Amino acid sequence: MSLLQVENVAKSFFQRGNELKIFSEVSFAVEPGELLLISGRSGTGKSTLLNLLGGLEPVSAGRIVFNGRVVTDLSMSELAELRATGIGMIFQNFNLIPGWSARENVEAVLMHRGISQTERLQRSTAILTELGLGDRLHNLPAELSVGQQQRVAIARTLVNDPAMILADEPTGDVDPETADEILHLLLPRIKSGRTAMIVASHGLFNPALATRTACLKDGKLHL
Amino acid sequence: MSDLLICALRELKRRKLRTLAGLSGFFLGCMLITAMVLMLQYDLQAKNALVNYMGNKFLAYAPMNLIGAGDSQTARPLDPVNEGFFTEPTVVTRLLPANLAASIAKIPEVGVVTPFLLYRFKNSQDGHVFSIGGIRPADVRALQATLISRHDIISGVFFQQSDRNVVIVDKSYADLWNLKVGSVVNIGDTLFPIIGIAGSHARTARADVYMNWPDAEAAISRRLNRPLHNEANLFLIEAAGAETVAVAMQKVQTLIEQGITNSVVCSIPVVKFMGLSQNTVNAVLVIVAVLAVLFAANAQWSAASERAHEVAILKAIGWRDRSIFAQFIIESLLISLAGGVFGAGAGYAVFRSIARVMGARIDAAYQVVDVPVTLAMLIVATALAGIIAGLVPAVRAAATRPAEVLRDL
After folding, report:
1. Handedness of CA B248, B249, B250, B254 (dihedral sign)
2. Which of B182, B209, B335, B338 sits at 20 to 30 Å (Cα–Cα) from B110?
3. What is the pLDDT of residue B271?
4. Can you give the pLDDT at residue A181?
5. CA–CA separation, A8 vs A36, rounded Å?
6. What are the phi and psi torsion angles at B286 (to 5°)?
7. Residues of chain B with C-beta less than 8 angstroms from the C-beta of A111
8. Burial of B125 (0-12, 13-18, 19+ CB in 10 A)
9. Are B335 and B19 in contact (CB under 8 A)?
10. pLDDT tens, residue by residue, B277-308
11. Rounded mean pLDDT of chain B?
């Protein structure tokens, strides 16, 4: 069984009573160690698809199965648990909490899960140090460069060692050099088979790095 | 729980101004309520003390019908123009069996009762008229409640049960005739040394000279056509409570043929007034509490709005709805609890200051006995107000749809 199976998923929004179809009949599977690049123009629904996979939004139709669990059948609480343990998300604009330090942002993922504060601090410090931010633990996001902020966001995702990473334009807002750095942090984990990654990008992500590519266009996913 | 507390403390520390604003709100609210509650409680207690002191006391007697009244058994003064059994102001009274006190005491609404002999005497030397009161010192509680006790003695001592041929005089009478402890009083041509002077203050009944019951009986008997046989002309009564005084008076009256009961103060209106005060306290408290909760809820609502993005991020990285909900509640609780603790302390200080400025006595006699309990209750109430105030914003925060909020950025 695949790590992730997406079966005939459709998503629509309703605006003033009118249905706005984003995409439909989206089906694909992802295996551990795979990097799937989903490309497409802005507004085609790439971010929405990632949100569906992460359980942040409900599907309009279809089914998503992750690690043998039907994500589309899970309760809000179970979905939260899934995001906290199995699926990590990297957002285009980092989505760090502005008032929290780098370490607190990373530690947040480990809270409310019965992990002691000591362990939380150890793990968040270790991952930030691994990503080259050992001397920036107590800095607020605003005190970090864009590249450093993105590394904090990646650390927040990796601190859980998730089976799958959903990344929305992970290199979209950074310069090529920083993008390169970020990819060098993520790719070894994927290649080792510890995790799989789905990247949504409108062209800024190097397709050569992906094991597979797909294109979201005209409401359909073209593999 | 510890995670919630860590996060809550971190948040409160981080948002210093908002925390300070919330804390100030609860602090001021709790301080005002505390000061008001203590002042009103003190006020009620003072009124209660007044009512308890005067409002639940009354006397019972039977007036004499002078025209054609009396039979051969009736005790008649030898000098009916100047002497006789009476009660104030000028009611001539009949004698009743002193053991009627036992029947009166059985009425549930009656607290204590004691018989009293009140007789007007004419001094044989200078002709001035004065009153003597015969009391039973053994009725300690009843005497303390209605007439005189050792607490009323301003010089000398109070009666021992075995004391004979000594008297205690009322201060006003002592002042009038320049009497002191050790002076003597002429009662029916017998001299009685004074062993104590009693303060002149409002009582259910009063006499110029107080005597032990056997001495009074003997002195009065010498001025009647027949000796007294364990009889009294007044019964001094304290009702079980200020609220039951009316019923007690009614029931006592039924035990005495053509009897009259007479309250010395308007106890029933006072009781009603106290009820009004209590209702005012409750109403004021409810209004202030509602205002405090609304104020706090508004502040928390604003905080929830400001933090929508942060909440969306936390939910996106795996925080459950209940964690978000609990987070907001704990923050609100911490603010309200801190505000409550400091507010209650400050409120108490304000109350003491106002009491001092107004010259109110806060001592053993007018003690605000429930201070610790009242303060504890106010702190708990403030903390509860914080929880209530945090409920709606917490529900709102927990219901945040992360995808929508993050998409809107």
Report:
1. positive
2. B209
3. 52
4. 76
5. 18
6. -60, -45
7. 3, 7, 319, 323
8. exposed
9. yes
10. 667 767 777 787 787 778 777 777 777 777 88
11. 84
Question: What residue spans define the domains of chain B?
Answer: 2-51+271-408, 57-240
Residues in chain A: 223
DSSP E strands in B203-276: the ranges are: 209-212, 231-232, 234-239, 260-263
Chain A residues whose C-beta is within 8 A of a chain B C-beta are 47-48, 51, 54, 56-57, 76-77, 80-85, 89, 91, 93, 95-100, 104, 108-109, 111-112, 117, 156
Which residues in A lie closer than 8 A to residue B306 (C-beta atoms)?
none
A32-64 tens-digit pLDDT = 889 999 988 888 888 889 999 988 889 999 999
For the stretch A180-216, pLDDT in tens is 777 787 888 888 888 899 998 887 677 788 889 999 8
Query: At CA B320, angle to CA B318 and CA B326, rounded to 5?
Result: 135
Identify the residue among A90, A95, A159 best suited for mutation to test binding to B, counting B beta carbons within 10 A and taking the highest: A95
Name which of A98, A101, A122 is nearest A110 in CA terms. Answer: A122
Phi, psi angle pair for B374, to nearest 5°: -60, -45
pLDDT tens-digit map of A130-159: 888 889 999 999 999 888 888 899 899 989
- The answer to whether the beta carbons of residues B388 and B291 sit under 8 Å apart is no
Examine the pLDDT at A163 and tell me if it is beyond 70.
yes
Q: What is the pLDDT of residues B210-247, one digit of tens each?
A: 999 999 999 999 999 899 999 999 999 998 877 788 89
Can you give the length of chain B in residues?
409
* DSSP conformation class of B382: H
Distance separating alpha carbons of residues B113 and B136, to the nearest angstrom: 11
**Residue A97 to residue B319, Cβ atoms within 8 A:** no
Bridge-partner residues for B110, per DSSP?
A: B239
Least Cα distance to A49 among A70, A17, A22, A79 occurs for: A22
Chain B partners of A57 at a C-beta cutoff of 8 Å?
401, 403
Q: Over the range B189-224, which residues count as b (16 or more CB within 10 Å of their CB) and which as e?
A: eeebebbbbbeeeebbbbbbbbbbbebbbbbbeebb
**Partners of A212 in beta bridges:** A36
Q: Shortest Cα distance from B313 to chain A (angstroms)?
A: 6
Q: Of B10, B316, B322, which is closest to A83 when you measure between CB atoms?
A: B316
Q: How far is CA A90 from CA A87, A133, A182, in A?
A: 10, 17, 11
Structure tokens that stand for B65 in this block: 């019908």
Residue A28: pLDDT band by 50, 70, 90 thresholds?
very high
- A137 in Cβ contact with A93 (< 8 Å): no
Distances A179 to A120, A182, A204 between C-alpha atoms, Å? 28, 5, 9
Can you tell me the distance from the alpha carbon of B134 to that of B167, in angstroms, rounded to the nearest whole number? Answer: 10
The SS3 call for residue A35 is: strand
Residue indicated by tokens 């002592």: B174
Structure tokens at A198: 């789905």
Angle between helices B308-316 and B321-357 (to 10 degrees): 140
How many alpha carbons fall within 13 Å on the CB side of residue B237?
36
